[in-house]
Amino acid sequence: MKSLLILGAADGAMATYRTARALGYRTVAVDLRDTAPAVALADELLPVSTRDVSALTAILRGRSDVAGILAPSSDIALPTQLTLTERFGLPCGLTGATVEASVDKRRFRAVCDELGLPGYRWIDGPDWRAAGLRFPLVVKPADAQSSRGVTRCPDESTVDAAIADALEHSYGAGIVIEEEVLGQHCGCECVIDDGRVVFMALTERHLTPPPQATTTAHVLPAAVAGSVHDELVAAVDALCARLGYRRGPLNLDLVVDTGGRPRLIEMGARTGGDPLGELARHCYGINPIEASISVAVGAPLPPMPPPAEPRPVMVQLLNAADTGILTAVHGVEEARAWPEVVRIVLLAEPGRPVTATIDLTSKLGYALLAADTPAQLRETADRLLSTVRFEVRP
């Protein structure tokens, strides 16, 4: 049986492990943490850093079963994916320019500016005063992911602490400061073939209030004008042409501004977490995760028929209200019986330290919801958050 080497076993990758198994592949997880959520779904664990190219090269030299390598929901593992596939002659849609734009926000912003895409003012480094940037600002590491170290700053009093936090989370000690774009935050999951978008799912992304910028929910389909979709497809096609990206998954964060124009914020040439691939499958009947696996093994993409009439779906992230030790989880079985609940995934068991700070590394689970209308989704999500309770001992 052929194997897939999957770089990372965080919860955002869980759907990739399930889909790979359904397609008949063994899954080999690469993650230093044997407690990572997706490890339980893998057939094999390599306790190696996803960035340790030398160790993974030595391991792969002794194997003939690996048919492909992919890095779902993880920008920092993309350089490893590209290097290993080149060394071992495995299929890969990545290019060096694509990886660089995925892992370095400065490079992505520069490419968008070169293409003349709708943008906003930004600087590389901390000197926002000299650049004349106007508040509100967003301070972020140039090379981190999952909203780590990202702070929304309403005024000057918050900037110094935000810069220190961004530097602490940066792998290369670099930061970006941007003027915040006001409007509807969105997530975008694409499949690229022959250098063009063949599938796109655009979600409404709900965020924590400032100073954080962490996702709390995604709703699909996004309630935006059709012109936004068309403009976004054109922008992504131009981006792929500039980067030489011909085939594979593409995940984007963007804001549809108050004038109705999409402004790209970040990209990753991989599937998203949260879990956007599952949302797309339940909404449109098209699975971008299956497409990403096809690219990784050099197989034809699965059929991409016109999307079905979308059914409103939502992923709601679950977090603790207090910091301490998790002692019990209440209300899960009750909520699972609701007709709108497709799946509830818990990522923590009693005995684990938890934090009330909302970020993508502290979430304790998520719920996938489906309903006839967006209003029913919101009502179900509100009921879910009051029903599923995490009991925490200080």
Automatic annotation (TrEMBL):
Q: Which InterPro entries match?
A: ATP-dep_AA_Ligase (IPR052032), ATP-grasp (IPR011761), ATP_grasp_subdomain_1 (IPR013815), LAL_C2 (IPR040570), PreATP-grasp_dom_sf (IPR016185)
UniProtKB keywords: ATP-binding, Ligase, Nucleotide-binding
Q: What is the name of the protein in this document? A: ATP-grasp domain-containing protein
Highest taxon of the lineage: Bacteria
Q: Which residues form the ATP-grasp domain?
A: 109-297
